[in-house]
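=== Structure Prediction Worksheet ===
Name of assembly: unnamed complex
Input type: mixed (protein and possibly other molecules)
Chain count: two
Listed entries:
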Amino acid sequence: MKIGRDDAQALTLFAITIAFMLVMSRVGPGFGSASQIEAILVLASFVMVVAFGQHFVVLIGGLDLAVGSVMTLGGILAFAWIGDSATALWWGVPAIVAITGLVGAISGIGVAFARIPPFVMTLAMGTIAASAFLGITQGVPRGSASPFISSLFTGSWIGLPPVVVLTIALTALGSIVQRMTALGRRVYAIGINPNAAFLAGLPVRRVTILCYAVSGATAGLAGILMMGYSSGATLTMGQSYLLPSIAAVVVGGTSIAGGRGSLAGVAAGALLLTTFTTLVTGLAVGEGWRIVAYGSVILIALLLLRSDVSRWFKPPSGIQTSTARLDAGA
Amino acid sequence: MTAALFLAVAAGSSDAALAQPKKFKIYLSLSFTGDAWLSEAANVVKALAATPPYDQEVELKEVISGTDPQKQISDYESMIASGADAIISMPVSTTALNRTIRRGCEKGVVFMMFELTSLEPCTYNVSTLTSGFGENSAQELVNLIGGKGNVFVVRLIPGFIADVRHYNGAMSVFKKYPRIKTFEYYGNATDETVQAETSKALAAHPDVDAIWSTAGESGAVKALLASGRQKLVPMTGEASNGFRLALADPKLQARGLRGVSSGGTPATAGYGFKLLMEMLTKQRTNVPHYVEYPLPWVPADKVRLCSGDRFANGCNAFPKSKVQDSFFDEVFNPAILPELSLTAALTGKPTPGARIQKLTNPIVAAPQEPGITCDRCTPPPNLYHLTKVKATAKP
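=== Predicted Assembly ===
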């Protein structure tokens, strides 16, 4: 099996994460314990689900600054609509994911057809969404938490919290789409050169809208999960996930210019950043130094990934990059 | 004919003017909104302004400025220019708005700040900041754990004056006990962040003995429960309904959850508004510029569920079906704000049939505290003295 550059980066990040955990296990009694690893996996799930959609947008050279607001929208709707009704669960989750996907698609339409710069369009959509739910809820979301969604964080499937299993499944599914389908290759092609992709007859606008819709849908899904985790919804519940979602994507090896990166890398990035913040919280580092350290970890990870780490893992010839895969598939 | 019509209209409008006295133009200026605390604060003011007789005396306009001082300065300027009689506000900064506020005061605008204060001497302020949440709740916790153990300290928002005051008060107590070890982190005053950060801290320090939390404490309870541990630990927190319900739960009490619910309250907005109205209508003079709101204090054994839509017969929490966990119960105060009900706190609409009651409680002037009630002043020697609890644990 050939290891491409993206895979090598993901492996490097996983290795750094494991190294972090080993360091942590020497710091104190609870560090590196099974319960700590479980807490890290659960908390990384939120970042991962939001970063999933962000990754597809960044891959085509865009950026989705609305994910925080859309995540909040998902949480508020889940709190209001689903509650403790088992029936509402079955129609509520797909409906909320569809609505938040539609919000993302509107951003995509603005970017693809009106040629509004992604950060302006998504910032505007995020602001509109935030203002709308502030007005509708009058500041206080009402409803009740779904016991089933809450149980995703306390139960156990194959020895892991269900939410972790679902996140792994989502990542695996996304990776298959990304690596083995024409749609996946089109996303890479558009990210590398949208003009060339357009001239080659690829449906650039349609794929762009789809990527933003996926970003909205996964942000909404993350909001539903967060509502279950905290058994409630607030108007600020998604705010703190915007920057981590971008950081996980970038640290995970996705080029901010588009056209390169993998979901495995994003998962590794989310895991690394969450592991680091957990370590820092456990050490009770002051808030100022915590932010300095967080920024430093992102920088160090990016520097490590800039060097061609794939050389560490593969023989001299046959480096398979995303571009190479694209060429092979084209 | 035309002249007669003109005179008739003029006479009519004159009569209308006499029948309809000029309303006070009051602006409600919020720094930000979106959480339960601020929403309740805004709703309380809106509900009171719509309650008779204030509904005939007040024209209330709400402005949300965001967390940028420049934006709030700009909004204050606009309010002053538009002829505001008063501004009731939660200021972003204790000092950055001073020049604009001073200009407003010179033009006759009355500034009433709630919970967060302004150091401009012409302002009026109502706040719990000086009432000692930090030191009293910390001492209660220390008493519960016998003066020793590992304590999580969940702070508010970095740079927030309330965070600094509560933290300093709490640490003034914890530092007296050398066998207490603290681990601190910020919860940003939201349940989700407090839950996530407490989960991280619990995983690293399973040997925690107590949690001292500011707003967002419901999240700390959820993190404790989600950690799967059988033995819970004593906790202090603010006045969220979820926390009070947890404190009153016999099953959780049996597992070791004890503590006290206290902290800042959105009722300061309502108290400030009523004080402001009594000043504007000349019913009250000689109001201290810094008024202390009494510290809410509800230990676990004093939590009582309300069957109605307000505090009555000593109740101080609501069933889960009526409000969500993050709802701040202490928005109610039967002595100061008897006009309020859940409808008022949740929607900003007046309580049906309610009428404004004159304030009869003693107005307590806040003590001098640098950065909160005065600038570069000398704090009293007993700044962090205990008012709600005595130290029973030995250092």
